């Protein structure tokens, strides 16, 4: 097991893989780009709002979760597409479940933003 990478080298490699994944999501996934732009705008807005730290964490965290779910969904789609182009019920189910995860995250983000903005501006 002398070839096993550990410590700081492993963390450095993992960071490189993560950046490569984010770059791939940006280059190949239109939905990720759209959601990332919205997330950036929402994060900037969250810092300009007169809200407490917990509200700001909820506002930012909810849009961040959308990006996390979209990245996972894209990974699922890439693996399914790699397996083969033929239609299969399990392949469709995997893609639909990934899409559902993104939709649920978007609903959560909308709920958080509407609730906190309502509380802030009423």
Automatic annotation (TrEMBL):
What is the top EC class of this enzyme, as a single word? Answer: transferase
Q: Which residues form the active site?
A: 70
EC number per UniProt? 2.7.1.107
Instruction: Classify the source by domain of life.
Output: Bacteria
Q: Which Gene3D superfamilies match?
A: 1.10.287.3610
Q: Which GO terms describe its cellular component?
A: plasma membrane
Q: What is its main location?
A: membrane
Pfam families in the record, alphabetically? DAGK_prokar
**What GO terms in the biological process aspect are recorded for it?**
phosphatidic acid biosynthetic process
Protein keywords: ATP-binding, Cell inner membrane, Cell membrane, Kinase, Lipid biosynthesis, Lipid metabolism, Magnesium, Membrane, Metal-binding, Nucleotide-binding, Phospholipid biosynthesis, Phospholipid metabolism, Transferase, Transmembrane, Transmembrane helix
What function does this protein fulfil? Catalyzes the ATP-dependent phosphorylation of sn-l,2-diacylglycerol (DAG) to phosphatidic acid. Involved in the recycling of diacylglycerol produced as a by-product during membrane-derived oligosaccharide (MDO) biosynthesis.
| Family according to the record | Belongs to the bacterial diacylglycerol kinase family.
In terms of PANTHER family, this protein maps to: DIACYLGLYCEROL KINASE (PTHR34299)
The protein's name in its UniProt record = Diacylglycerol kinase
Source organism per entry reads Sodalis ligni
Q: What is the lineage of its organism?
A: Bacteria, Pseudomonadati, Pseudomonadota, Gammaproteobacteria, Enterobacterales
């Amino acid at each position: 097991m002398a070839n096993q990478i550990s410590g700081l080298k492993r963390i450095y490699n993992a960071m490189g893989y993560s950046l490569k994944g984010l770059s791939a999501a940006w280059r190949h996934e239109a939905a990720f780009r759209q959601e990332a732009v919205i997330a950036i705008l929402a994060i900037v807005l969250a810092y300009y709002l007169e809200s407490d730290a917990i509200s700001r964490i909820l506002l930012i965290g909810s849009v961040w979760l959308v990006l996390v779910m979209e990245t996972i969904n894209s990974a699922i789609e890439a693996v399914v597409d790699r397996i083969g182009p033929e239609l299969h019920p399990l392949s469709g189910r995997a893609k639909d479940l990934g899409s559902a995860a993104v939709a649920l995250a978007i609903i959560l983000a909308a709920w958080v933003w509407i609730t906190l903005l309502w509380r802030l501006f009423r």
